[in-house]
Amino acid sequence: MSDQDDIIEAPEDAAEESGPDNFFIDILTGNKESASAKKLLVQKVLRQLIESYGFDRNDLEVNYNPQIPRQGRKRIDVAIFRPDAEHTNDNLQRIIVCKNQKKRDKLRSIAEADADLRELKELLELIPDATLGMWTNGQEEFLFQVERTRFEVRAKPLGVWPVPGERTTDLDRTGGVIQVSAEAEDLEDAMLRCRQYLNRNLGLDHKDSFKQLAVLVLAKIHDETLPTGERRFWIRGDEPFTEAGQQAIAQRINESIAAAKAWQPNLLTRGWDLTLEPHETARVVMELARYSLSETQPRYRTGAFRAVARSVMDGREGRYPTPLNVAEMAVEMLDPQPGERIMDCSSGTGTFLAMTAAHIFKKKLAAMGTTPEEATNEQIRQAQNETAAWAASNALGCDIDPFLAVASRMNLLFTTGNPGRVYRIDARTFPDGDLDGIEAARPALPLGSMDVVLLNPWFSSQDKITDASILSAYDLGHAWERDDEGGFRNTGNLSSGGVPPEVLFLERALQWVKPGTGRVGILLPDGLLGNPGDEHVRWWILRNCQIEASVDFPVEPFISTVKEFGLTPAMCSLLILRRRSHEDLIQAGHPEYKVFMALVDRAGMDRKGNPLFQRAPDGEELVFSDEVIERVREGGEVHVRRVIRRTRRIDDELPLVSEKFSQFKGDSEVAI
Question: Boundaries of each DNA methylase adenine-specific domain copy (predicted)?
Answer without folding.
Answer: 315-561
